[in-house]
């Protein structure tokens, strides 16, 4: 027992924080791509992408995420490269138990570390693939080392200096171990924003199952329908969104857009007025004003059109 | 000559008439989920990012930092509006994960000392 005092990195977790976690996990099936010079970004990304069943060799990914002028890769570009393969880079909560929970659930976590100090930062990406609570260590795929064992305390200091950034790469419709509504929907909305509609739709559908009381997954599904050209489904979806959240600006605005396009101008006006009132002073004000103008210029269809929901 | 003039005049008027019904500036479109989320999550009333402008700036930045012309557009395509704006504004300062091989000279010595006393963790083979 005397030796225990010499341990450099004793376990530092109160039992309640790690309760329910298996004491020791290692995802040995996670592939390893030794990095080339400066290219830990492509290598780490290839590791988590391959693990989620997506294609992407480090050389190919380097074309998508490596910035020669910075001799490195930016976080946003890693996220974007995952998106273009219909994968969702879900940012995990910024604490070690959350990270360990993902690993325990089978998801390797791509982390950013600062191996230097604040004035001389040395930014680095690695992938956490295992841990040992009793030994107080983590196992990482890092650089040219396939199995880098790192003390938790040491890892935490490097992770802290990188604002504890970590992502898991999810297949469409997959939930992380610690799902949080705002993070998950934002990641799905990222897929929608760049036109990966199939994957976005699957993620929103999963989110609606998980958080049936939230309006956001419903709104996302309606927007995906709209962008696919299914206006009928979109209209129903916006109405369902408003049933969950009568103050949702986007749903009011987009519903007004659809209604005015099909000649239901009076109904469109009602919704765009509500949207305008709710959007006052927000970033959406100008977009809603454009819709209002569009509605004002629309012509009412003949009476044969049914404008009742 | 008058016949030709008249034809041209008629064509101009016809085009002008066709344009009467169309809005001049407004290009209304549905609002994406992300824009709604970002607006709901931010306390301050930040203006929405102009995608066209942000794309142009981000394109310039990527090229300035050595990205191959052929790859620039594909890289931009995966970014959301606010990410484009991050790239345009913070490419110089945002953390870029690479590795330690670029470190030389005095900085190297300082880092070696910091490593020895356990503050940092770069040179994994250093005892």
What would your notes on this structure say?
With 309 residues, chain A is of the alpha+beta class. Chain A folds into three domains: 9-170, Cathepsin B, Chain A (Alpha-Beta Complex), CATH 3.90.70.10; 179-237, Alpha Horseshoe (Serine Threonine Protein Phosphatase 5, Tetratricopeptide repeat), CATH 1.25.40; 247-309, no CATH class. Chain A has helices at residues 40-51, 58-65, 75-83, 96-104, 152-160, 181-193, 197-210, 215-227, 231-244, 249-261, 265-279, 285-296; strands spanning 24-26, 66-67, 72-74, 88-91, 109-114, 123-132, 137-142, 145-151, 166-170. In chain A, strands 1, 4, 5, 6, 7, 8 and 9 form a seven-stranded antiparallel sheet that branches. Chain A has a two-stranded antiparallel sheet with strand order 2-3. The longest helix of chain A has 15 residues, at 265-279. The termini of chain A are far apart. By secondary structure, chain B is mainly alpha-helical. Among the domains of chain B are: 44-95, no CATH class; 97-127, no CATH class. Chain B contains six helices and one strand; from the N terminus they run αααααβα. The termini of chain B are far apart. Classes of the chains: A alpha+beta (309), B mainly alpha (127). At the A-B interface, helix 1, helix 2, strand 3, helix 3 and strand 6 of A face helix 2, helix 4, helix 5, strand 1 and helix 6 of B. Strand 3 of chain A pairs antiparallel with strand 1 (96-97) of chain B, so a sheet runs across the interface.
What attributes does this structure have?
heterodimer; A: 309 residues; alpha+beta; Cathepsin B, Chain A; Serine Threonine Protein Phosphatase 5, Tetratricopeptide repeat; seven-stranded antiparallel sheet; 12 helices; elongated; disordered N terminus; B: 127 residues; mainly alpha
């Amino acid at each position: 027992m005397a030796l225990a005092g010499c341990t450099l990195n004793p376990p530092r977790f109160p039992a309640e924080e790690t309760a329910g976690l298996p004491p020791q996990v290692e995802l040995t099936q996670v592939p390893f791509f030794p990095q080339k010079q400066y290219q830990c970004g492509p290598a780490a990304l290839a590791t988590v992408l391959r693990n989620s069943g997506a294609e992407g060799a480090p050389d190919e990914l380097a074309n998508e995420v490596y910035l020669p002028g910075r001799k490195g890769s930016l976080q946003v570009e890693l996220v974007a490269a995952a998106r273009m393969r219909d994968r969702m880079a879900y940012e995990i909560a910024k604490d070690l138990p959350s990270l360990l929970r993902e690993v325990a659930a089978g998801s390797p976590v791509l982390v950013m570390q600062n191996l230097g100090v604040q004035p001389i930062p040395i930014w680095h990406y690695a992938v956490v693939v295992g841990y040992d609570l009793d030994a107080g260590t983590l196992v990482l795929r890092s650089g040219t080392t396939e199995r880098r064992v790192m003390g938790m305390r040491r890892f935490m200091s490097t992770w802290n200096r990188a604002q504890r950034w970590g992502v898991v790469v999810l297949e469409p419709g997959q939930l992380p171990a610690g799902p949080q509504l705002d993070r998950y929907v934002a990641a799905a909305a990222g897929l929608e924003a760049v036109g990966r509609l199939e994957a976005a739709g699957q993620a929103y559908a999963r989110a609606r199952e998980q958080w049936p009381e939230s309006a956001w997954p419903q709104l996302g599904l309606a927007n995906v329908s709209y962008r696919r050209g299914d206006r009928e489904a979109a209209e129903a979806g916006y109405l369902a969104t408003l049933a969950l959240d009568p103050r949702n600006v986007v749903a009011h605005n987009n519903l007004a857009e659809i209604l005015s396009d099909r000649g239901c101008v009076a109904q469109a006006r009602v919704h765009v007025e509500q949207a305008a009132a709710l959007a006052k002073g927000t970033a959406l004000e100008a977009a809603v004003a454009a819709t209002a103008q569009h509605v004002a210029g629309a012509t009412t269809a003949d009476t044969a059109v049914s404008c009742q929901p | 000559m008058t016949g030709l003039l008249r034809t041209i005049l008629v064509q101009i008027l016809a085009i002008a008439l066709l344009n009467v019904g169309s809005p001049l500036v407004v290009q209304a479109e549905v609002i994406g989920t992300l824009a709604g989320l970002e607006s709901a999550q931010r306390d301050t009333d930040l203006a929405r990012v102009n995608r066209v402008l942000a794309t142009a700036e981000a394109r310039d930045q990527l090229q300035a930092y050595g990205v191959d012309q052929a790859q620039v557009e594909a890289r931009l395509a995966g970014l959301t509006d606010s990410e484009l704006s991050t790239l345009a504004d913070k490419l110089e300062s945002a953390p870029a994960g690479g590795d330690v091989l670029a470190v030389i000279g005095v900085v190297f010595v300082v880092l070696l000392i910091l490593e020895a006393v356990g503050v940092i963790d770069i040179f994994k083979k250093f005892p």
